[in-house]
Structure formats: C-alpha cells, structure tokens
Amino acid sequence: MNKKVIDFIGIGAHKCASTWLWANFRAHHQVWVPPQKELHYFDRAAKYPSTGELGTEKLGNRLLRVSSQDSGWRKKAIRNLAGSLIRFDTERLRWWLKFYPRRFNDQWYLSLFKNRNTDVAGEITPAYTMLDVSDITHLNNLCPEVKIIFVIRDPIERAWSHIRFDAGLGKIENLADLDEVRRYIDGDALTKRGDYVAALRNWLSVIPRDRFFIGFYDDIKLDAVSFLNELSDFLKIDVNGFPQQGISKSVGVSRSKGIPLEIEVYLANKYLKELEELTSLVGSHSFTWLESAQVTLSKGAN
User: Fold this and answer.
1) What pLDDT does residue 178 have?
2) What is the pLDDT of residue 53?
3) What three-state secondary structure class fits 71?
4) Whole-angstrom distance, CA of residue 194 vs CA of residue 153
5) Are 263 and 296 in contact (CB under 8 A)?
6) pLDDT given for residue 254 in this prediction
C-alpha cells in the first residue's frame, strides 16, 4: 500500500495533549487529519476497553439493532451529517458520507485519507497505546512506512487527569470515595492506557525506532514551539505552518483539582516499578517523575 495514503498516526497517550496536537495539525496547511479526532479503527475489537461506534462492522446491524452502541452510532451519524448540511460544509459532508454508510474494513479505513490536497495525512487515537503486537502488525502492514507519534506524561499525573475526566462523564460516581477511585485505578481502562512500558515494547517490536517519535507532555508545557519544531522535523513539514497564536493554547484540559495524598500514594505504588523501567527506556523527564513518586511514597510513610 502506498505510504502516502497515511503518513502518521498519533497513538496517545490518553490525557497527554492529543486534542491540542490534533487542533494544531488541523490548522497546518501541509497536514490533513480527519474532522473527527479519534477514529478507533485498530482498537475496535472487544478485547480493548475503548470499543465504541466501530464495534459493529455491518451497516445493516448498525441501522437496525437496539444496542446502546448502535443507537449511539445512529445519533452521532445524524448529528454530524445534519450539521454539515446546515452549515453547507460540503467538504466535511463528503467525508462523513465516507465515514458512516460503509462497512468498516481496511479499504474503508484507507478511503478516509484519500483525495486530500496536503503533503501529509494522519490521525490521532490515544487508545492505540493499548494495541497488542498482532494489531500493531496489522496496522504496519496496512500502512507501511507510517510514522508513529507517542506523547507521554508523568503516569501519576496522567492517571489523575484520566480519573477526573471520567468522573465528569459519570464513570466514577464520587471522587471522595477512595475505595471507588482505587477500584477504578486498577481497572482495565486506566491501567492499559497508562502502561507506557508495555506500549513501547509492543510498538517498537514492530515499528523501527526511526519511525517512532517519543515526546513529552512536560516539553509542551515548557516550550510548545520547540516541541512542534522537533515534531515538524520528524514529519518533514514546515514548523511555520502552525498557527502561532494557537500553539500555546491549551485544548481539552481537565479542570484542575488537587489529588488527595492517599490516592497519590496509591498511584505512586502502582507506577513505581514502571517509572524505574522508564528511566532506562526513555530517560529525560522520567527521572523527575520517578523522584516525585519516591517523595510521595515518603510522605505517605510518615
């Protein structure tokens, strides 16, 4: 398959500025990304906790079944198609007509990126962090020479951001109920999305290191321009194509709320071993993350 069908895929991690990155790509004249940020094509199997609207492959089933998944798909399809018509947005309408009425398969996925008028095209789905080797191999075979973008942050901070976000969606009833929060921390959704070590080992067993970009959320916060400069070099695009007024603007950030010490200690215990492994795998900010976790554990012991 021609590598020009899709040039890059952002695989997360979840709550690591992926919406900010997608918004900046959308504004870049050399880059095309879908109007829907997350496609969830490669993680649609039931073995992943992120399965959503692509879980039902056949159009007939999506139209007729009464499951919450399929009724949700119908509502979203009507909203997006009608919205494009109301706004007379013919370009977006054509893309939604590719996205919704067809059977979900490899040919369908590749068709979403065709007929663009840019040098580079890609997508960002943070749940791809969780993919196993068989699905990564499938992705690589379908999109040979695709470049992978993986942005990570302190796993304790990421987990707390994830917890607050899901609490806002009603997935956690009471953030003050520490037992409920602990159960959520140990559930598949949070654990698999935050397992950087497993993700790196799985992805780098298939994707060559020179096609794999590891970025840090900390660097975006410290100097977003330098971060995008480095990413532009990786993708071979003009850094000046990003909108200067939007580079430092936060997108999709959860409302700040301090983490209770008891939960912070629980997360520090959960991620301590992974942080120790990360220092040898990625270095950089992971040393600071490890030191912070060790300080937290010392506080918890006092």
Assistant:
1) 87
2) 74
3) helix
4) 10
5) no
6) 54
pTM of the model: 0.92
Question: Does 82 reside within a domain?
Answer: no
Residue with tokens 């039902």: 56
Compute the radius of gyration of the chain from its Cα atoms. Answer: 20
pLDDT beneath 50, residues of the chain: 1-3
Residue 225 domain-assigned (yes or no): yes
Q: Is residue 13 helix, strand or coil?
A: coil
| Residues 6 or more apart whose Cβ sits within 8 Å of residue 216 | 151, 152, 153, 284, 285
CA 266 – CA 178 distance, rounded (Å): 10
User: Using CA atoms, how far apart are residues 182 and 51, in angstroms rounded to an integer?
Assistant: 23
Residue 189: which CATH number? 3.40.50.300
Euclidean distance between CA atoms 40 and 301, whole angstroms: 41
Tokens read off for 299:
């506080």
Task: Tell me which residue range forms the domain holding 192.
Answer: 16-55+104-301
